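#struct-queue
[09:14] JT: dropping the first one here, sequence first, then the structure tokens:
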Amino acid sequence: MQMSDPTPTSAEIGQEATESIGLPYRIAVLCYLRDAQGRLLMLHRSKAPNQGRYSPIGGKLEVGEGEGPHECAQREIQEEAGLDIATEDIEFIGMVSEKGYEDAGHWLLFCFDVTRVISHDELPTYEFEEGILEWVEPDDIESLNIPETDRQVLWPLVRERKPGGIFTVHIDCSTDPMTWTIHASGS
């Protein structure tokens, strides 16, 4: 009698991995820049994700390059606002995980504050392929067309964060209504 080998074949392992993957996970940064009046620099997006909505400057990490979150924040600020911001002027303020965002994927977002004031004349342009940059009063953010996750969860955490505070939150967008758990509020 011949015994079968219980070790799974590479095809079986590949099948199990494919079945367990589900939605893709994306890693990105969001960067909050302020002017001397305390207004935030927001991008009115002309491209997906969040086309037609407002969001802070940000974008996906270049994972294949091994890019870190701070490096990504510097790169995205340079690409979207044309600003070279020193690493010491970029402060980590929080982390957001989103499950099933728009049924298209999961997100892990690293949030940063630029700690120095940005002068309007530092920006070489306000319009580029991703959309149009606009300075927005903090009190007006919630009235903008922003993602519901930002309106209900992220923006209140950013707005209420105390200096030096860090927030972490998990948002489950796969449920209706969405639910969230704040693990640290930053206040």
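[09:21] JT: and here's the second one, same format:
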Amino acid sequence: MHPDPRKTEAPTNPLAPKPVSLLIKLFKNYFLTIFGTIVFALLVRLYVVEAFRVPTDFMAPTLVAGDHIFAHKMFKTIRRGDVIIFNFPNDPRKDFIKRVIGVGGDTVEIREGVLILNGKEVSIAAPRDGETEVFSEEVGKHRYQVFWNSADSKKMIEVKVPDGHVFVLGDHRSKGQDSRVWGFLSTELVKAKAVFVWLSVAESPGGIRWSRFFKGVE
């Protein structure tokens, strides 16, 4: 009697992967992919670029409260006019953002709101905005505006920046503290240079400031 071919079982392959083995392999592949992505992101954040949120208007009008910026860390030199993020000298746990005005060897002075760098006036008065006095400045390759409250003293005696340090100011000269108060900043404390605004959210009354998206930091 011949066997019924319809009931003959197909030969099994002892080398065929088991379902459990396939599941483990799939999990390992996903794990390695996710782990690699996390490591890559951490390396980028540590050495290349980092995101920061601006909490105050101390750098207005260039940067305002609620701006989220990208800053790059791969730079060789710090130049006049750069907007930098650094560890606050009096509390290195805090990040500050200011503009570099003078580098080692430069002299800096302020007379009636006019910035004088190495004996040359680099700012001129612009049309005022209510009680706010506006000045246009050009430092290095950067052109920008600065604010002063009308009632504030707008002067500073000449100082000379020592080597290995920079002199920094906020663009809103009447708000916050900068090198006029706590002195020169060591270049070793500089973390990054601001590049552009990638998101801006107004805290009051609230809402996204679409016009500030991808706005370069001059």
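[09:30] RK: nice, looked through the second one.
[09:31] RK: The helical segments are 19-47, 179-182.
[09:31] JT: good to know. Residues 124 and 135 are 5 Å apart (CA to CA).
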